[in-house]
């Protein structure tokens, strides 16, 4: 089984919210883009909650998210997985990202959002203790997954569940280039 390598963090120095997935799916890894599967509702949810136009080209969507103070990353840097389902990740192969090492580059980071229960479970297992040791007040919010595997949750319901993100957003403005 092949070892999958995740993406680098998409953050800026003004990042207030970091959305963590578990590990990019096959479609995302192939495209080299976060949330690239056509049925993943992440970008439509970001449009509903953050005002980021889901039809923009990928680089512009990332820039717009960063302009609102939102960054993207995953809990796992590497793992072995057959297919795209989180349930297929081999636990003994899990290697977490260096989130503690990222914290100094994101001094305004105030909220970690886990996109789905798998991301929340992996965050708790691999990162939470080290992150809280460095940033005791850093909050974590687990929200329903935008993945097509979470088909029981409609786009409208996801947009409602993700509404708490709004209180953490920066007003629309220029992006400060980060990592």
Structure commentary:
The chain is α/β, with parallel strands linked by helices and 179 residues long. It has a single domain, classed as Uracil-DNA Glycosylase, subunit E. It is built from seven helices and seven strands, in the order ββαααβββαβααβα. Helix 2 packs across helix 7. It is globular.
Structural class: alpha/beta
Morphology: globular
- Uncertain segments: 174-179
Beta-sheet strand percentage? 15-25%
Task: Tell me the Rg in angstroms.
Answer: 15 Å
Outline the biggest β-sheet. 4 strands, parallel
Give the overall average pLDDT: 92
Which bin fits the share of residues in helices? 25-40%
Q: What is the CATH topology?
A: Uracil-DNA Glycosylase, subunit E
Strands side by side in the biggest sheet: 3-2-6-7
Count of spatially separate domains? 1
Query: If helices are DSSP runs of H or I spanning 4 or more residues, what is the number of helices?
Result: 7
Order of helices and strands: EEHHHEEEHEHHEH
Oligomer: single chain
Kindly provide the name of the CATH class: Alpha Beta
N-to-C terminal Cα separation, in Å? Answer: 31 Å
The CATH homologous superfamily corresponds to Uracil-DNA glycosylase-like domain
Count the strands? 7
The CATH architecture category equals 3-Layer(aba) Sandwich
Tags for this entry?
179 residues; 4-stranded parallel β-sheet; Uracil-DNA Glycosylase, subunit E; alpha/beta; 7 helices; 7 strands; 3-stranded antiparallel β-sheet
